[in-house]
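Follow-up to my post from last week.
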Amino acid sequence: MNIQEHLAKVSQYFSPKVIGEVNDVYVKVAKIKGEDIPWHNHANEDEAFFILDGELLFEEEGRDPFMMKKGDFYVVKKAVNHRVSSAKECQIMLIENKSTAHTGEVDAPITKSIQDQLD
Amino acid sequence: MNIQEHLAKVSQYFSPKVIGEVNDVYVKVAKIKGEDIPWHNHANEDEAFFILDGELLFEEEGRDPFMMKKGDFYVVKKAVNHRVSSAKECQIMLIENKSTAHTGEVDAPITKSIQDQLD
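User reply:
Got it. Predicted complex:
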């Protein structure tokens, strides 16, 4: 299925949706607009970001903030605090372990369960 | 890093290059042109294909061949025989377990070691 069809079905910001299962990993798409994602980390899990459209401000502990643009690919390593935000809508692909909670241990207003991401 | 920069460094067809490590998974880019990939499967591992540019003819045992186009995403499940080919250059992203041999158990002329894919 085309990624655009998957994205068309995403009606909420900060609400990742699983588009594929590759062994222990979920591939997801999400739309980001605003600053609702809290600082968080994933103690034991790396997380990959691929920008499908728009721009994503990436903040990561220990380095300067950087702007990710369409086609940019970045992996935040396990246990590293980070957050992402976007002034305008940004469309992303995520590659995460099935066990990864998208806001880490932080229970934020935007936090979604894995079940919600599979629906 | 932008995916275009990664792709610019790929000088050979059928020669996947690792662009990121996400726990037990490698994310790779590759360029496909021709029909050099043999039928193969990965006994224990799913494999995801995402088309970055061009078109990829996907043949999979048990279903009709289908053409993947830019933005199409597809996961071939473990143990399912498949092969991909392209008349013109096609640029793809792959999501594979680190243990996945890109031509499965088949040792083809184009088969590359994981070390070669990391160089």
